[in-house]
Please model this.
Amino acid sequence: MKPSDDIELSSANDIGAEPEAEVEATEQLTTPETSPAPEEMDGDAKKAQTYLHNRRNTYGYIKYVSLVILTVQNAALGLSMRYARTRNVEMFSSPAAVLMAEIFKLVICVGLVICEAKGVQKGVNYMYNIVILNIKDTIRVCVPSFLYIVQNNLLYVSASNLDAATYQVTYQLKLLTTAFFAVVVLKRHLKKWQWAALAILAAGVALVQLSSTDKQVAAKTTNLPEQSRILGFSAALAACFISGFAGIYFEKVLKESDVSVWMRNVQLSLLSLPFGAATYLINDGTSKNLLRGFDAFVWYLVLLQAAGGLIVAVVVKYADNILKGFATSVAIVISCVASIYIFDFVLTVQFAIGTILVIGSIFLYGYVPKKAEPRTSLSV
Model:
C-alpha cells in the first residue's frame, strides 16, 4: 500500500465521476446571464436548476470536509507512527503492521467496488472479469504493489529514527521525486516556477536535516536500538524515490485503461499481500506471533494508514492543488506543534526556516496562473 498518495495522481478515473465537458456544458446553460426567470421556467427546468444548485453545494461540502480529514490524517499518521515506535511496551513488527494495513485496504476497496456496481453479484463479477480474466493487466500492477510494500516498511524505519516533525517535513521530498519521474517517464514539461519550487523544497529539507532537534528523544526510546538520524533520513529519501516512481507508474497504468481507481486498488492490495507476507517472514523468520504487540493503538495506526490513500482520492476529485497543498502545510504545522508537547521536540530557528521553505514550495509548485481574459473592442 502506498500511504496517503496511492491514488493521488489519477482519481479522475473514479467510477461515477461525471465528464468535465458535460458538466461544464450543463452549467453554462444555466448561468445567471442566460437562465430564464423562475416564473418563465417549466417544471423540468426548475428541477434541473435545483439539481445543479444542490450538487454544487454537496461538492463544496465534500471538498472541505475531505480536506479537513486529509489534514488530520496526514498529521496524525506521522505522530502516531513515531509514538507507536517509541512507547515503553512490547514492540510490534512493522512488516506485520504493513501487511494488516493491506488487508484492511483490500476489504475497504472491495466494499467500494460492490457499492459502485450496486450489487454484490455485479461487483464480484466485475472484479472477477478484471482481476482473473484479464490476468495480463493485473500482472502489470505487480510493480507498484511490491514497491509500496517496500516503501511502507521504509517509512517505519524512518519514523523510528526521526522525530515526527522532521519525518513529516522530509517526506515532502516525494514532490521532488514525483516531478523527476514525471519528466523522465511521462515526458512532462515543468514550468519555471515549478523548477524553482523544487529547488526551494530541497533547500528547506536540507536545513531541517542539518538542525539537531532530537537529542532528548533518544533517552526515552528503550524499546529501540540507538537511533540514527542518517538511517532515518536515508530511509525517508528511499521511500520518496519509491513513492515517486510507483506513483508515476501507477498513473501510466490508469491512463492506459478504463479501469476505475477503486478497482485498481483492489488489484494493488491483492497483489501486495504475498509481498507483505514474504517481507514479514524474511524480517521475523517465522509466521508465529504475527500480531505480537498489537494493542488498540497499533490497530488504530493500521486503520489510519489503510484509509490514507482513499482519503486522498476523494480530495483530488473534489479539491484543487492549492487546497491540497494547504492541507499538507497545515499538517506539517500541526506535527511540529504537537511534537513540542508530546516528544519534547526543540524547535530551532534553522528548523523553522526550513519548514517555511518547504511549505512555500508546496504552494508554489501547485500554483496555476489564471488565463488572461480575451480583449474585445469594448474592453477598456
In short: The chain has 14 helices and no strands. Residues 1-35, 213-222 have pLDDT under 50 and may be disordered. Residues 43-84 form the longest helix (42 residues). The radius of gyration is 23 Å.
